[in-house]
Write a structure and sequence with these properties.
Annexin, mainly alpha, 317 residues, calcium, Annexin_repeat, annexin
Length: 317
């Protein structure tokens, strides 16, 4: 499948030449931020890893440490994120979400609801290798209730594949009985079905549920559940419908209103720029009164903005 990303590998790539450019940009008085951001966004993540290796070979120094020493603020966070391999980035994000002061549920929800089963398996293995800890155990120690149970289900990365024609009606019926028809919600039914069925199957279930109840699945979840569980169920449902649409919404809410959620903005732009940014932009344009490009432009500033706009690619005016 062709990549739907905006950031692509550079054709005539020379890791040592790039390492020289970055070294020069940081040498002497002042830093050439423009040179750094233009180079980094014009290379794929795999190429950036080669640049890091070449930099160490040429100069005997760690490129990321040098960048951290020269840059600051959100711009530094963004550039360092771009220099991190995708799997390491997800693993570190989860670790910080769990081990930081208070749990950052938003990060757990976003990563575990949106990644493929194979990606989740890789994350669990890499987490153990990096920290000698069990991700599931760490998540369980930090969460509770049905929120915890659904995270555990997602961490099994055992979703069914394909569509079980015979179960579409019965799944919709079970969800209807567990929610709209019941006084007090049977959360267990929600998390078992939404956590275990394939995306294609769930889309059919949502249609059947709508016919049966007169409600979109999301509306019922909004009404019937609350807190972190609600956020996770909604993320799972939205990702079953369309992962790019889920990220378009996530980006919109990160920038809407007073103050920007820079961490979410950085995380989504970095993790999706080589995956499905073109689709995210299209979904964004469809759903909101502006383009992703124009919203980033109006909501951020300086080198941080310049870098984000290069990751976004074009404008969909």
């Amino acid at each position: 499948m062709a990549s739907r990303g905006t950031v692509k590998a550079s054709a005539n790539f020379n890791a040592s030449a790039d390492a020289e450019v970055l070294h020069k940009a940081m040498k002497g008085l002042g830093t050439d931020e423009a040179a750094i951001l233009q180079l980094v966004t014009a290379r794929s993540n795999a190429q950036r890893q080669e640049i890091k290796a070449a930099y160490k070979t040429l100069f005997g120094k760690d490129l990321v440490n040098d960048l951290k020493g020269e840059l600051g603020g959100t711009f530094e966070t963004l550039i360092v994120a771009l220099m991190t391999p995708p799997l390491t980035y997800d693993v570190t994000s989860l670790r910080n979400a769990i081990k930081g002061a208070g749990t950052d549920e938003k990060v757990l929800v976003e990563i575990l609801a949106s990644r493929t089963a194979q990606q989740v398996k890789d994350i669990v293995a890499a987490y153990r290798k990096e920290y000698d800890d069990d991700l599931e155990k760490d998540v369980c120690g930090d969460t509770s209730g049905h929120f915890k149970r659904l995270l555990v289900i997602l961490l099994q990365a055992n979703r069914q594949t394909g569509i079980q024609e015979g179960n579409i009606e019965s799944d919709a019926q079970a969800l209807f009985k567990a929610g709209e028809e019941k006084f007090g919600t049977d959360e267990q039914t929600f998390i078992t079905i939404l956590g275990n069925r394939s995306a294609q199957h769930l889309r059919k279930v949502f249609d059947a549920y709508m016919k049966m109840s007169g409600f979109e699945m999301e509306e019922s979840i909004q009404k019937e559940t609350s807190g972190s569980l609600k956020d996770l169920l909604l993320a799972v449902v939205k990702c079953a419908r369309s992962v790019p649409a889920y990220f378009a919404e996530t980006l919109y809410h990160a920038m809407k209103g007073a103050g920007t959620d820079d961490n979410t903005l950085i995380r989504v732009m970095v993790t999706r720029c080589e995956v499905d940014m073109l689709d995210i932009r299209a979904e964004f344009r469809k759903r909101f009164a502006c383009s992703l490009h124009s919203m980033i432009k109006g909501d951020t500033g300086g080198d941080f903005r310049k870098t984000l706009l290069l990751l976004c690619g074009g404008d969909d005016a």
